[in-house]
Amino acid sequence: MDKASVLGETIKQARELKKRVKEMKAARRGSGERAALPGELDNLSLGYCESDKSLVKVTFSCDDRTELISDITKAVKTVKGSIVRAEMVFIGGRQRSVLWVKGLTGNEGIGMLKRALKMAIDRPKIKNGKSRFPQ
């Protein structure tokens, strides 16, 4: 194939993928569910699980980075919680995760977890094995 053909096919595939993502988002909105794809903006929300009030449902979107899962696990352990279920989607350098956490004590526990997760999510990517900020 010549360069023009490769470029044309690439553009065609990119448009098709954008169309599919748009259709998936529209289908999710129509069903009343939140989008399963990572958002463009960082966000973090916590609340009690509707089906089991002993679990806290944590939902967040952020930039993906190698050490993020480890940082999230450490954040949950600092508040003496444990992750009992996790769903994660990684697309284009972004991540959307839903975690179910047990072992938290009331609203104070949720507040502490939110602060710990916010710090983990906001931590900058490590470059050349070193973080831009001391940990």
Automatic annotation (TrEMBL):
Family matches, as SUPFAM superfamilies: ACT-like
Q: Which InterPro entries match?
A: ACT-like_dom_sf (IPR045865), AIG1-like (IPR045847)
Q: Name one GO molecular function term.
A: DNA binding
Q: Does the record carry DNA-binding as a key word?
A: yes
Write the record's keywords in alphabetical order, separated by commas.
Answer: DNA-binding
Positions in coiled-coil regions: none
Under what name is this protein listed? Transcription factor-like protein
Native organism is Corchorus olitorius
The upper taxonomy is: Eukaryota, Viridiplantae, Streptophyta, Embryophyta, Tracheophyta
